[in-house]
Amino acid sequence: MMPSTVSALSPLDGRYAGRLAALRPLMSEQGYMHKRVQVEVCWFIALSDAGFAEFKPLTPGARTYLLGLVKNFSSADADAIKEIEKTTNHDVKAVEYWIKSKFEARPELRAASEFVHFACTSEDINNTSHALQLKAAREQVILPALDGLVEKLRSMAHALAEVPMLSRTHGQTASPTTVGKEIANVVVRLAAARERIAAVKLLGKMNGAVGNYNAHMAAWPEFDWEAFARKVVETPEPLGLGLTFQPYSIQIEPHDYMAEFFDAVARANTILVDWSRDVWGYISLGYFKQKLREGEIGSSTMPHKVNPIDFENAEGNLGLANALLRHLSEKLPISRWQRDLTDSTVLRNMGVALGYAVLAYHSMGIGLGKLELNREALDADLDAAWEVLAEPIQTVMRRYGVQGAYEKLKAVTRGKTVAAEDLHGLIRSLDIPEAEKERLLAMTPSSYIGKAAELARRV
């Protein structure tokens, strides 16, 4: 019987287990075993096609059966491998023995069983399996989640493109923008970060104990093992791994691509931390309300509260994700001499790091779906901030050579409560063309938005 999620040590497998159902089969230990089986099967089939007299090409039936071991890999299969590992105390060897056990009823495969894991070091299997895990997680979970956020934010940017909003620089009132333009800024940044994640090449090596094909060359010295390994690594799935070949390594693949990948994910997360804090602030100002859920409680003592918990949860989990991602990025490219084991236990936490990120994306999506614009609060702030028009007035004054334009507006506005009448009186006194006076007199904080609406619609 599976233990209750209440007893889980990590909230990823406890409180938030349901939100990570798509990631768990890929980044769990079962997912790791699944990819190891895939690598071993691909290597075995490729060896049968290499032209060796001692290993004839497999029959179509045998190939279908082997690929079925990968396609139909189940939790029961993972449990069986764990049972073997109790004896071997070696996880990769347990996978090898499990595969060989599946050959028992098939004479063709049983006769060729010694070619399972042939000339491989454990890291030939592990490094490619990790790359396959990251490949699947990126394609099936991470990029779709980010794409969903980008599209939601893009839709909001377009819908709210013309809604004026008071800006705040240094926490103080500043030139107005629009709600849509501020969201468009996030869309552009997040979309660029998403592309950086997608562009990282995922590498794999299949070159033996210290990267020199030593055992391979001992078996068949005239065979081009490097070309063979490249073909296995780069051939698309299911007959290959669909990765980028790494020609130079020690016993382990150097993990530089992993650092690049984790840094790219962390960069996207940082953008979302920035947005989480901004939207939290906008909710605090009353610019956004949040849709209520029946029965939901905001505070145990204050019945009126509707807390921005989804954005707070997103920010918190993004922080956890980035702390782990940065450690992975900094640690994994470092290995003593040709190999030490410090990377092995750390790599088992890739799913935890990505899990917190995916959990945050989920919370962010829920939070965005709850937002409702509060136009009254936006308008009230703008109507109380006529001082922001000091900028356009003094800029027009400068255009027409009015001396001391900045200083005159500073005297009228800095540190003061400014009313429309104060600015209109100054405008009427200016020695500038009447048409310009009329244009400035017609301007309000709500209309002084520059190209914000256009920029928002264009994103």
From TrEMBL:
Q: Which parts pass through the membrane? A: none
Q: What are the alphabetically sorted keywords of the record?
A: Lyase, Purine biosynthesis
Q: Please give the catalytic activity noted in the UniProt record.
A: (2S)-2-[5-amino-1-(5-phospho-beta-D-ribosyl)imidazole-4-carboxamido]succinate = 5-amino-1-(5-phospho-beta-D-ribosyl)imidazole-4-carboxamide + fumarate; N(6)-(1,2-dicarboxyethyl)-AMP = fumarate + AMP
Q: Could you tell me which residue ranges the Adenylosuccinate lyase PurB C-terminal domain spans?
A: 335-449
Question: What InterPro entries does UniProt report for this protein, alphabetically?
Answer: Fumarase/histidase_N (IPR024083), Fumarate_lyase_CS (IPR020557), Fumarate_lyase_fam (IPR000362), Fumarate_lyase_N (IPR022761), L-Aspartase-like (IPR008948), Pur_lyase (IPR004769), PurB_bact (IPR047136), PurB_C (IPR013539)
Gene3D superfamilies attached here? Fumarase/aspartase (C-terminal domain), Fumarase/aspartase (Central domain), Fumarase/aspartase (N-terminal domain)
Q: What is its EC number?
A: 4.3.2.2
Family assignment from sequence similarity: Belongs to the lyase 1 family. Adenylosuccinate lyase subfamily.
| Role this protein plays | Catalyzes two reactions in de novo purine nucleotide biosynthesis. Catalyzes the breakdown of 5-aminoimidazole- (N-succinylocarboxamide) ribotide (SAICAR or 2-[5-amino-1-(5-phospho-beta-D-ribosyl)imidazole-4-carboxamido]succinate) to 5-aminoimidazole-4-carboxamide ribotide (AICAR or 5-amino-1-(5-phospho-beta-D-ribosyl)imidazole-4-carboxamide) and fumarate, and of adenylosuccinate (ADS or N(6)-(1,2-dicarboxyethyl)-AMP) to adenosine monophosphate (AMP) and fumarate.
Its name, as the record gives it, is Adenylosuccinate lyase
Organism, per UniProt? Answer: Ramlibacter aquaticus
Gene behind this protein: purB
